[in-house]
Design a protein that fits this description.
16 strands, alpha+beta, binds succinic acid
Length: 283
């Protein structure tokens, strides 16, 4: 297995691994180690059927079933399909899914540890995914700012992304209120210690973070706006240009990501994602 860095602060390309077959224990440990070091791993030119994707992902932990049930692969609810394709009537199309900076499942008490995405179909141009390093972004803050942020907590909710981004997308169907009620807001530390690397990482995101609990709304909003601008500045970002049959795995404990919805209307993008359960972030 060869690991080559893809940017200054995060991301690496991994060669010499076949994810279509079970990995031996040493290779699996090397993949896990690479994920802890680089936060985003790209495995090019893979042939991965849904059962193999589930098998690989489940080596890291229990798999989550996404709240949007109409986007789960029939017969394999561990796989969440992100697609704009209306011709594939097995799942509902969602052309702009994830097109805002977010961290998967931060609206749950025990958010996702990692996600694994396989590119079945990619558009001719566009449709990249951007990732940013919340560890490098934390490291680069001044000591004064770190002292201000340490010990703060933030409220996260699934509804926030819907209200802020999703409902404004033309053609988006309203989400049944009961889905929001089933996922009440949760509180997480604004900075947490990565359980494996030991690095301090910011843990807020525009998608699901509603507010900073200990500050008046105007102050909290200003700080969140500053942090989002800071975290997504170019020096902390790896932008992945997809090729068909890439597998990309990311560590949600140390990153945010965003799908870039800039491909041609009618061009197809079809991704399969598995989401690995994690533990509550610790401040
Ligand atoms: C996601 O938000 O998990 C999907 C990102 C993408 O489709 O590029």
């Amino acid at each position: 297995m060869r690991v080559e860095r893809a940017s200054r602060t995060l991301g690496a390309r991994v060669q010499g691994v076949d994810l279509g077959r079970p990995l031996d224990a040493d290779t699996f440990d090397s993949v896990r180690d690479a994920l802890n070091r680089h936060s985003v791993l790209v495995f090019p030119e893979q042939e991965v059927e849904p059962p193999a994707q589930v098998e690989f992902s489940a080596r890291f932990g229990r798999l989550k079933h996404h709240v949007l049930k109409e986007n789960l692969l029939p017969g394999m609810p561990e796989i969440y399909v992100l697609t704009n394709m209306t011709s594939q009537n097995e799942v509902a199309p969602r052309p702009y899914a994830g097109a805002y900076w977010h961290t998967d499942l931060s609206y749950e008490a025990e958010p996702a540890f990692g996600s694994v995405m396989y590119a079945v179909e990619v558009p001719e141009v566009g449709g990249d995914t951007m990732f940013c390093s919340m560890a490098a972004a934390w490291d680069a803050l001044s000591e004064r700012m770190k002292a201000l942020l340490e010990g703060l907590t933030a409220t996260h909710s699934f509804e926030h992304a819907y209200e802020t981004f999703v409902k404004h997308i033309p053609g988006t169907a309203p989400i049944d209120r009961r889905r929001f009620d089933a996922r009440p807001p949760v509180t997480h530390p604004l900075v947490h210690t990565h359980p494996e690397s030991g690095r301090r990482c910011l843990y807020v995101n525009p998608g699901f973070t509603e507010r900073i609990n200990e500050l008046p709304p105007a102050e909290g909003e200003a700080i969140l706006a500053f942090l989002y601008e800071h975290c997504t500045s170019e020096r902390f970002v790896y932008r992945h240009r997809w090729s068909r049959h890439d597998v990309v795995m990311w560590d949600n404990r140390a990153t945010m990501h965003k799908a870039v919805p800039d491909y041609d209307d009618g061009d197809s993008r079809y991704m399969r994602r598995t989401t690995i359960a994690g533990s509550a972030p610790r401040g």
